[in-house]
Amino acid sequence: MAEEESQFEEFEQIDFLRDRHVRFFQRTLQVLPERYASLETTRLTIIFFALSGLDVLDALDVIDRNVMIEWIYSLQVLPTEDQSNLSRCGFRGSSHIGIPYSTKGPGVLHPYDSGHVAMTYTGLCSLLILGDDLSRVNKQACLAGLRALQLEDGSFYAVPEGSENDIRFIYCAASICYMLDDWSGMDIQKAIEYIRGSLSYDNGFGQGAGRESHGGWTYCAIASLCLMGRLEEALSQRELDRIRRWCIMRQQSGFHGRPNKPVDTCYSFWVGATLELLDVFQYTNFDKNRSFILSTQDRLVGGFAKWPDSHPDPLHAYLGLCGLSLIGEPSLRKVHPALNITQRAFQHLQQLQQTWRDSTGSCSRQH
Amino acid sequence: QHGRVKIKSTAQQEEEKRKEREKKLKIYVAARDACFSKRKEGIWDDEALQLTQQLLSSNPDFATLWNYRREILMHLETVKDEDEVQKIYEAELSFLESCLKVNPKSYGSWHHRGWVSARLPRPDWARELSLCDRCLSLDDRNFHCWDYRRMVVKMSGVPVDQELAFTDRLIGSNFSNYSSWHYRSTLLPLLHPESPEPPSPCRKSPQTSPPPSPQTHSHRVCEEQLLKEYELSAWFYYRWLLGRAEREEMISCVYVSRDEERVAVAFSRPVNAQSVGLLLVLDGQPQRVEWRSVHPRFKHSPICDLPPGTISDITNEHNLTVHWTEKHTHRDCALYTGRTESYCRDSATDQELFRSELSVEKTSVLQSELQSCNQLQELEPLNKWCLLTIILLMRALDPLGYEKETLDHFQTLKEVDSMRSAYYSDLCSKFMIENTILKMEYAEVRVFSISDKNLTTLCHLDQLLLVTHISLSSNQLQQLPPQFAMLQCLEVLEADNNCIGNLEGLYHLPKLEEVYLKNNKISSLADLQPLASCPKLKRLDLRGNPVTQTANIGSELAELLPSVTDLLL
């Protein structure tokens, strides 16, 4: 009897608990525990994880789309009447600055209010996921805000007031330009130079020149180049093969982000998607990858954690799902590896872009 | 009833929670608004520092507040004297330390600390290094801390060998500290400023400038014998050091045959046949010929046919030159009277195709490295990086001399890292093929024999243009790929006891007479179709293949391959 039970339990161990994950994301969208307070300024990214997670689970029907869309638009930093704040436009992470709630312009001038490149990126993605047509996004303002963030060396700040600058924000910038179908938001050539400069001797990418190779930064580098359409131009075949090798060596059971670090659920996406973009994901071991991701599944609360027997969080919950989607988990929607949204949301974007091009009657302004 | 604790009603709980949240929100909003109004009014005082400190303690990634603090500090610099400023900044560093204790991975905190350290009137770099030491002792992979340490070292002029000693200590206590190894890799070039760029590939786009030669750098570093260490970073570093520099693009072989009146060209690197822009000059006259690839599915390796009668008369001598106009290079080939064929070729050794020429000093350094690696391997027999590096060192030093050890190590590697055993099998196949090519050149024969070597894949087929006899028997090959069609001189092919089901590459091989494919996986008549394009095929051994069970196989083959007189089923 006991043997039967434990066998049944073992079988359950590798079960994918879809409903738990839906509820996990629902709760994320309602209230976050106190320990997330330090993430307040980046709240929109957490929203994105939850929304995109629900999209991957094909469960967007559990939320009120319109309410969410309105809230996201309230985070847009719009131009003021005299357009003096264009270089600060984009989306902010939350209402922490204290700007009064408003979903339409003109913008209110506040000396310390500005967009944040990662919020603009996740804000646009979230709107697309919710089926919005981006008609209330002030595209020119977003692009002006983006231009103001790029440095001479090609990398980006996160905010116009200044912050650290590195390859993560190049990825955000490239995604924004790609979604808005307008590359005037950045100097592509300089960005490519920064990316190339970040390629380390061991064939992974660091956050910048001379820094340690890392799965996350490698994803940012390769995904950016793919979105720009410059992958084969910026990197030679030899370099690409070596990068493939570095990435493939990250698989231990699941994936880790750096040599000699423990495997972590989120890298099943960061490194997995990179391998997919480099056309070699099919050479990885799907079974071991899946087993590891599912070992970090929280059976009670839903979501995924970075390691087994750890607390789940929205980032790992979302990226764990994406990792499973890459290996073809049946109940999950496919994810666009470079843009990090579902293929369904991506198709919606493509249709939108077609409408934009048709209405202007000209080709998209590409570089 | 069942011993359960009485819980408060949900409504009551909700209300209490709401009140608490509202209280917290009030405190937060008050502090925040106070900060902003002060900043707006240009007030940069201690109270402002207090307020921002309060908020940043719970949320160190509120970037606006760090910016405000920087404004305050910069203002205070202008109104206080140096000693006071020093005290203020030191207090700032203490505050940052407490922030970092709570969240050692906060971008905002580290960024601010870097800013402060750069502005401190009398910086105490020893203190900064000690902070890094403590931080790294808790988490030696914290890249924020490593990046900060790099900045400190740069700003303070800490001697590089002192930092190297630091990494020695870290590595001594934790063998597997990849970040330490990475750090070492950035320190070593600082010790040798005459070397080219730090070990990273070129920064310009690949088309505009060639990469710095790793060989130059390795020569320098190895000679200093600083790399005595054996960890992951070092393995990757070795791999890069022992990597092959980009080969110059040139024509490596030209082959001319009177019988087919054909010219075949091979290059040092794969080149697209159609677009390559070759010019054939025969006895001083440019020829109008059409270059094509040897196989429709394989774009490299061009051949062309001369107009009939051009060189067929064996009493005539001819001089051919193949010009690669784009690269301003060419190859001459003389076809002598009485000869049916001619060729001109650089050996793989001369071309340094498989390994680079080593100086005496470099050889001795690599040898001592190999010795050390071997010792390590005895201590850590399951360390796959060690095994792989030993293999690469052996290939750099003496591929033929170390062949047996290489095979043994690959066997161990496949067991130790079974997830990548297919990769190792393919890599081993590549190395065995390279060795066989070297042996063939040394013996100055045109026979390529590589049986019973667990080959899983074929490569370097572009080096086998001149081979007349090839034996691939008793391996694990599954196909003869389109590249096989490069073997324009092939007369006899032995490939018994493999898993071959695909013969695509046996395509228009003009001299192929005998093919032995006993005990393979050829399953249908369609698989044998390519053989019909080989005009001189006489002998074919298909015993032990599923296709022999096909109905009327004998007569089908007679129809498909009429030139075959000797058929074994």
TrEMBL record, chain A:
It comes from the Eukaryota. It holds the Pfam family Prenyltrans. One of its GO terms (cellular component) is CAAX-protein geranylgeranyltransferase complex. InterPro entries: GGTase_I_beta (IPR041960), PGGT1B-like (IPR045089), Prenyltrans (IPR001330), Terpenoid_cyclase/PrenylTrfase (IPR008930). Its EC number is 2.5.1.59. It catalyses: geranylgeranyl diphosphate + L-cysteinyl-[protein] = S-geranylgeranyl-L-cysteinyl-[protein] + diphosphate. Keywords: Magnesium, Metal-binding, Prenyltransferase, Repeat, Transferase, Zinc. SUPFAM superfamilies: Terpenoid cyclases/Protein prenyltransferases (SSF48239). Heterodimer of FNTA and PGGT1B. PGGT1B mediates interaction with substrate peptides. Belongs to the protein prenyltransferase subunit beta family. This is Geranylgeranyl transferase type-1 subunit beta. It comes from Lates calcarifer. The lineage of its organism: Eukaryota, Metazoa, Chordata, Craniata, Vertebrata. The gene is PGGT1B.
Automatic annotation (TrEMBL), chain B:
Pfam families: LRR_9, PPTA, RabGGT_insert. InterPro entries: Leu-rich_rpt (IPR001611), LRR_dom_sf (IPR032675), Prenyl_trans_a (IPR002088), RabGGT_asu_insert-dom_sf (IPR036254), RabGGT_asu_insert-domain (IPR009087). Belongs to the protein prenyltransferase subunit alpha family. One of its GO terms (cellular component) is Rab-protein geranylgeranyltransferase complex. Keywords: Leucine-rich repeat, Phosphoprotein, Prenyltransferase, Repeat, Transferase. The lineage of its organism: Eukaryota, Metazoa, Chordata, Craniata, Vertebrata. GO terms for biological process: prenylation. Its EC number is 2.5.1.60. Residues 251-348 form the Rab geranylgeranyltransferase alpha subunit insert-domain domain. It is an enzyme of class 2 (transferase). One of its GO terms (molecular function) is zinc ion binding. It catalyses: geranylgeranyl diphosphate + L-cysteinyl-[protein] = S-geranylgeranyl-L-cysteinyl-[protein] + diphosphate. Catalyzes the transfer of a geranyl-geranyl moiety from geranyl-geranyl pyrophosphate to cysteines occuring in specific C-terminal amino acid sequences. Catalyzes the transfer of a geranylgeranyl moiety from geranylgeranyl diphosphate to both cysteines of Rab proteins with the C-terminal sequence -XXCC, -XCXC and -CCXX, such as RAB1A, RAB3A, RAB5A and RAB7A. Residues 1-20, 194-219 are annotated as: Disordered. It comes from Lates calcarifer. This is Geranylgeranyl transferase type-2 subunit alpha. The gene is RABGGTA. It comes from the Eukaryota.
